User: What shape does this take?
Amino acid sequence: MTFNGEDPLGFVQLYPSFPSFPSFPSINMRKTWVLNDLYVKEAARGKGIGEKLLKRAITFAEDTGAKGVLETAEDNITAQRPYE
Assistant: This one.
C-alpha cells in the first residue's frame, strides 16, 4: 500500500502460486506470485504510484525467492501501461 501521510493512494495484492506436477526441470518448483490487483485512486493516477507499487511487488518476489510475478490480463489496456 502507498500512502500520502495517512491517506492511502493505492495497493497491490499478490497471491502465491506453486507449479503443478509434472514440472520439469526441478528449478520450476519455486513459487510464483500472481498479481491479482493493482489499484491507484483516480486522483493519484499519472503520478507514478502504480509503477512504484509494481516495482515493490517485483522486489518482494525477488526477496522471497520466487520464480516471478504473473501480471494482468492482456485485454486490460489501462492496467498494462505500468508494466511497459
